[in-house]
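hey can u run this one w/ BES bound, need the structure tokens asap thx
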Amino acid sequence: MYAPRVAEFADDPHSHARPNEIAVGHLHLDVTVDFDEQRLTGRATFRLDRTAADADVVVLDTWDLEIRAVTDAAGAALDHVLGDHDPILGRSLTIETGGADTVVVDYATGGDARALQWLEPAQTTGERFLFTQSQPILARSWIPCQDTPAVRHPYDATVRVPPGLLAVMSAENPTERSADGVYSFAMPQPVPSYLVALAVGDLEFRPLGPRSGVYAEPAVVDAAAWEFADTEPMMEAAERLYGPYRWGRYDLLVLPPSFPYGGMENPRLTFVTPTLLAGDRSLVTVVAHELAHSWSGNLVTNATWDDIWLNEGFTVYFETRIDEELYGADYTAMLLRLGRQALEAELATLAERDTWLSLDLAHRDPESGPDLVPYEKGSLFLRMIEQVVGRERLDAFLADYFDRFAFRSMDTVTFLALLRTEVLEPAGVGDADVQLEAWVYGPGVPANAPEFPSDAFDRVDRQADALLAGTAAADLDTAGWAPQQWVHLLRVLPTDAPHAVLADLDRTFGFSAQRNIEVATAWLELAIRSEYVWGAAEVDDAVAGFLDRHGRSLYLRRVYAKLAATPRGLDRAREIFATAAAGYHPVARAGVARMLDAA
Ligand code: BES
Ligand code: ZN
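ok here u go:
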């Protein structure tokens, strides 16, 4: 029987921790949330596991944390030292354990706590709000921790918030507010630091199914419950594909608009952007994606951020399999086509090394890596394997993989060895037959990538041709189009499309007032790249409004990038950013700033 090599703990270039000496085995967190000071103060109590029997120091990661005291369980002070500040990694906290099995760190967050966003009532539907975003290496800015995905442990927590607000975590959660603002949480399964999450706000809960529900501010909670009605069927589809859901409940939390992602797979409690509340359930595939992470990512976890395709590429693949179960193959083909289009657009902008599946992010901020390569090239790779070996064989392998490696980490080399011996060789397929090396350690998209024919998109292509040949927008055949078809139309229209045609489109279909974030983004990108925006005040207003209203980093950067491509647009981008940035989450603000600085 083949024994895969999984190192005890992978070396992670993005952490100071040395878990092969001492690893954290359990965390108890006790924090007080101070909205006035915008600060968390608290105590982290770590139970330690000695990986090397004679090890005596435990090393934690910190980012702008004030360390107030370090003691053993009995309160005796332990020697400790904070290392120099590294602009990517922050400061190490090295503690002499003196043989202790428990260390206790009293600390407070600093002014540059990048995981935290503190929102004033004007940025929510009415009350103060706090949420965390720990992935990839921001957990260390609100908890001292071994901030590497290679280390995982259970945690529990006591969180003290202003009475009247509800606190929720990536853990077993309350559904009712407590009178005194004190909440207790337990996450009995071992999780890596990037999956520890907290949110505090004026939250209400609505059940969606027997083991699922949604938390949101009162003004949106009913709309959210309607939008996410398919959550339980998605869970059932996912379990049919790859085995039991191992986390007990699956709840959703709808964040305020500045949440910087579409979704974040915090275990037991996925965080989602309110832009999913499109009113027509057209964007719920993001829920399928975050749910899929309950297997790919949260059960079997990338060992380092260089291996992130093992989280995200697998999850896009799994997501689209769930989509296919619920909404059919035609619908899924549209999603796959849009994914490929977006990947090609990103590939054109990347340095070659950033287009490999196996990334090299050492000495870089992991957030400066490619956005879509791990997702879309990763999922295309699995679709290609599926095409070669057959769906049944790949599914059987994946179900077993999630079971066998549950609660463990996985690196690219180990995964490829498994794929060879358990999938390819039994099917009589060699590396060269599938261009394995080219996919994982080579640039771009190899020629054996599958294609995804879509009648729905063919129909859109015909209408695009008609439009450019002079047909009025009102005379196009667009009856019953899904939002994905509109996105496709706007993406295929050429940059030199006549401005009169774009004006006719906007007048007829109201794109500048469009609320579906996917359609809105595609329209604004078209209006900017064609320079139509400069002659149409309502479109310029729509650009500014969009960049002011949402905080989803990827979409912000898409629109800013289009602006930054011309001198006039770059000036406008800087002008909008100067006022809008205050409302962005620190990670979105940094991402846009990095992009504008490079322009
Ligand atoms: N885990 C990611 C978000 C993430 C990735 C945060 C890397 C920090 C670093 C999440 O599952 C995700 O992929 N979100 C996507 C949505 C998805 C449908 C592609 C997003 O936010 O756009
Ligand atoms: Zn994801």
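The pocket of BES (ligand 1) is lined by residues 135-136, 261-265, 286, 289-290, 293, 312, 375, 554 (CB under 6 Å). anyway lmk if its weird
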